[in-house]
Specification:
By secondary structure, this protein is an alpha/beta fold. The chain has an 8-stranded mixed beta sheet with strand order 5-4-20-19-18-6-7-17. A 6-stranded mixed β-barrel has the order 24-28-25-27-26-29.
Amino acid sequence: MRETEKIRTVCPAHCGIDACGIMAHVRDGRVVKVEPADFPDPKYRRICLRGLCSLDITYHPDRLKYPMKRTGERGEGKFERISWDEALDTIADKFKNIAERYGWPAIGWVLGGPGAGTTKFGAYLRLASLTQSTRVSAWGYGDAGLPCGSRVIFGSQFPYAYLMADFLSGRSKPELVVVWGTNPAESQPLNMMRRIMDAKDNGAFVAVIDPRFTVTAAKADAYLGLKPGTDAALALGLMHVIFDEGLHDEAFIRRHTVGAYLVNDETGAFVRGNDAGLPEERDVVIWDAATDSAVPRGQAGAKPALTGTYRVNGVPCRPALQCLMDLAGAYPPDRAAKITGLSADTISGLARRIGRAERALFVTHMGFTRTYHGDISLRGLGTVASITGNVNATFGGGHLPAVLNWKPFLHANPEKPSYARLGILQLYNAAIKGEPFPVKAVWLSFINFLNQCADTNKIAREVFPSLELIVSTELFMTDTARYADIVLPVCSYLEFSDLVPFPFPFIQRQQKAINPLYECRSDVDIAAGLAKRLGFGEYFQGGEEAFIDLILDSGHDSLKGITREKLREGPMPLNIVPDMETEIDLPFSTPSGKIELYSEALRDVGQALPVYLEPLETPLDAKGKQYPLAFIQGHSRFRTHSMFGNVRPLLDMNPEPFVDINPVDAAARGIETDDRVTVFNDRGRTTLKARVTEAVAPGVVDITEGWWMDRFGEGGVNCLTHDVINPVQERVYEPNMHMNDVAVEVVGTVETEK
């Protein structure tokens, strides 16, 4: 027996913006143990339940072992073994045939999130770019609400750089932490939750805003259990108090936002020089309090007014901040309380804490925006942070830099256009109706599409039957893989190399610990094999290691001096911009280059400001409703979406799904804990046990997402959800899935069967 070799690698289980270093102990070609790896900063030496179950994934008896093609009907799960050559030849021939008839955009690459590293994404993006086919969703499971809202207010898809960069880098010791619509104690326990608890230990007041009383909420100083989908109303109620009591930061607003820009009351557009008869015809105009006149923004010596009403060439106008104040003025705490279900005193109290805190940090993530108007919710949160000066807007304040240069992948051939784009919800109509263009084949990687995406029944009954080819790369025969025409076995993270740019500010090398088991291949190798058959093999020479070098040699400032060989020994810190004595404003990528409290681009749809719009389906008032309960989906510490959903040690601790229901709603329906119930609406139904708990408010029910469908008596979580597209999100970026904007009813199964 050989001695045990220790290989430092990384668990890329996609725990938000985090990844833990792993020391793999290898003996005789088998990983026999995993443990936390050392870090330059010892606080990053950690591992969670999921990480400890890495070997249960790699050596799971149900691992897919070789390529297979379907022999039965889609969904039956009947397959036969084939060779890699036959699998890739079949796929390449089918792709070419479809492209000849419909064009290459008819091939859709659907790439999810969990377990996805940079070279894995890069390989498929490169092939999509070279073939000029279609990338479906830049945000994995259709989580576009957060990036849509962030693009509007900050100009970036990643609000974390502006809301949490100091927190992630360890530079800030906040006085207040507001955890809004996320449950890091379960979804990000070793990164974000640890930082929150450290902040609390250092004296920070922690407030949690969530429809569920979560594990995170249990650790908070204050819990605000608002009704699902009413976050924008809460934000406006907070702003009302902040403005009314003069707790906003006027200096920050003038310097970093469009608050001083004059808005034409008649058109909603910013007033420009040509409107005011100024030589700077296209420049935005402000009102100069010193000269009592309209002047171009940035004019030396001007004192921009933030409030008031004015006339410019006879046209009534107001500063953008005044427009926001007027909107917030219509949401006093009493009104916001009626909408959100919170008390007026609770809203006022949190507003004062935010306004008076020397430093407040806002922690959020994707679940916060999984509603029809989730983009506006993010804008509401971002606006509260901005008017109180709690946004990182200078280098001196700390900035989370871009880590990766994706251009070598997105534009593999700079002389040709790259791939087309569709959101996941847009894929439904592309497959079924050919709108906006037909998609006839999909390649599914790192995504359990049927289980995790909206309206499972529609996917199975309409989307999948409209496709001529479905390819799934998988570790296991998931609910989605059962519908595939070709299933390709992939490696676990212990069987291939990759580059992982987390936890901030470190970058790590995920080193292959063992050779691929069975006939499994890495995603890079799979993409390379298909690329060769499509005439692009030269772009995939060298495998994962070459792709790692491609990223590290991209010339990005944050990666200078970092090499693959140096990363072999352990993580290296990114070259982030150091603190400076003189603050330098960050260039926001909005049209104005500022934080856009007011979005001129959305004035025609009535969303220039973060207005409150009622949820699409969530019943805020149950009276007379066919489906009176608001259905939401929380996350579980035992899974990352559906990943780890078949791992025995985790199932031993958490064996089956429950629907959490409040005692008031349970009593009205004659339901007790452990009763088998059916949750249903017009789209579908799912059967499981009930758990009566006050962790959800009256009128709300919750099922943690990610459960495999075989764990239910019938159906699954997303049999209940819908695929309605928000046209504003579609216009801004791509439409969001609305897993937390759903109406249902719950009944005992005996009653349902009658």
